[in-house]
Amino acid sequence: MERLPKKERHQRLARLIEDNPFITDRELTRLLKVSIQTIRLDRLELGIPELRERMKLMAERSFDAVRSLPLHEVIGEIVDLQLDKSGISIFEIREEHVFSRTGIARGHHLFAQANSLAVAVINDEVALTATADIRFIRQVKLGEKCIAKAYVRSSGKRKARVEVFTYVGEETVFRGDFLIVRSAGALQDGGGDRLADRD
Amino acid sequence: MERLPKKERHQRLARLIEDNPFITDRELTRLLKVSIQTIRLDRLELGIPELRERMKLMAERSFDAVRSLPLHEVIGEIVDLQLDKSGISIFEIREEHVFSRTGIARGHHLFAQANSLAVAVINDEVALTATADIRFIRQVKLGEKCIAKAYVRSSGKRKARVEVFTYVGEETVFRGDFLIVRSAGALQDGGGDRLADRD
DNA sequence: CCCCTCTTAAAACCAGGTACTAAATCAGTA
DNA sequence: TACTGATTTAGTACCTGGTTTTAAGAGGGG
């Protein structure tokens, strides 16, 4: 019954909406014991969009995530590819790739980009990663664009050694040394990315 | 201009909505050259809900997905953890982790499980991966349950070396050697997983 | 010709809002 | 005490993107 101070109400409101984005203003009036106009003023002040807008944003995010996941097969966009020689791919660090608290990209995304590229650059129907030696040189933050460059250092019948360097601007942020195995028969792998599997 | 037969229109309608769920009935009238009433009858017949309902469903799905993904931060379920000593996590290979054509798990998921565990086992507020040396020993297929075991081999003030072995049943499928850096200040990392970031 | 399906139209209504105007309430202070 | 300004509540008009219902043409087929 006792009215909360405005600030506290704002906090509660934000919290309530955050952990149930599907709540209507009308339901919020019941929980916060203020009029619907107050709720709406509060949302306005806090920059919280209306229910439908919230749902739309969520839907769009998940839709984009699904759509942008033919990347699911090859992580990062390959912009240049000279089979058995070299390749370049670009990968932008987005919300879903970072720790929410720190904004630092999770390591396996950088690994995934490099790994995908290393496999893609090998000119064979089935190519899988056998071993990898990797180094995270500096942390990568939300919004940064990672450019990975792969160079095939040696290329035998069965195996190829691929070096990958990932840059953000001028800085090297990641370095990886991959041993890629060609040919479908003699898999010794836990699942490298396959060029042939891209969409 | 020429009107399509009803069946064909239905197919087109379903297709259009499928690959742009955010389309309104009004926009559909333009694309299909029929009245808005016809569009609505069609949706009714096909059991396609209205725009808002579609968005809501998508939003709910993604919300559920996010909620059920504290896994998002640590890949695999940690079933045992002795800080600075050892840890065990379980990760089941599902549809979304494999190449659709071959059913072989993509390497970065195995890497992610091992990396997450390696970081989690380090008893520090902020721990990030500096380097990793990994080996995919055999491919892992859809449905297989990967059990990763991490052992802290040496643990200094700044750095810790963690070895991770991943098994499917009795077989070793993956092996990784991680150098994990403690403490927030001296990051030299591209983003390892952080224990503190788990939900 | 009537009947039937398909299509279009029009009107009433709804949820969940926005935008705007205005009044009531409360706190502090000159 | 009265004035001032922020806060809260109320009310109205309007919007989108629909649903429901009721009705009426259009175009065949028997």
How is the topology of this model organized?
Two copies of one chain form a homodimer.
Chain A: H1 6-19, H2 25-32, H3 36-46, H4 51-67, E1 77-82, E2 86-92, H5 107-120, E3 128-136, E4 145-155, E5 159-168, E6 171-181
Chain A binds a DNA duplex (30 and 30 nucleotides) through helix 3 and helix 4.
Organism (chains A, B): Thermobacillus composti (strain DSM 18247 / JCM 13945 / KWC4)
Function (chains A, B): Transcriptional factor involved in regulation of membrane lipid biosynthesis by repressing genes involved in fatty acid and phospholipid metabolism.
Protein name (chains A, B): Transcription factor FapR
Average the pLDDT over all residues of chain A and give the rounded result: 81
> What is the molecular shape of chain A?
elongated
Q: What summary fits the major beta sheet of chain A?
A: 6 strands, antiparallel
Chain pair forming the biggest interface: A-B, 58 and 57 residues
Which oligomeric state applies?
A: homodimer
- What is the gyration radius of chain A calculated from CA atoms? 24 Å
| Count of individual domains of chain A | 2
The CATH topology annotation of the largest domain in chain A reads as: Thiol Ester Dehydrase, Chain A
pLDDT < 50 stretches of chain A: 66-72, 185-199
Number of strands of chain A: 6
CATH class of the largest domain in chain A reads: Alpha Beta
User: What portion of the residues of chain A fall into strands of 2 or more residues?
Assistant: 25-35%
CATH architecture of the largest domain in chain A: Roll
Report helical residue fraction of chain A: 25-40%
Q: Helical stretch count of chain A?
A: 5
Structural class of chain A: alpha+beta
Strand order of the largest sheet of chain A: 1-2-4-5-6-3
CATH superfamily placement of the largest domain in chain A:
Hotdog Thioesterase
Our measurement of the CA-to-CA distance between the termini of chain A, rounded to an integer number of angstroms, reads 59 Å
* Pattern of helices and strands of chain A: HHHHEEHEEEE
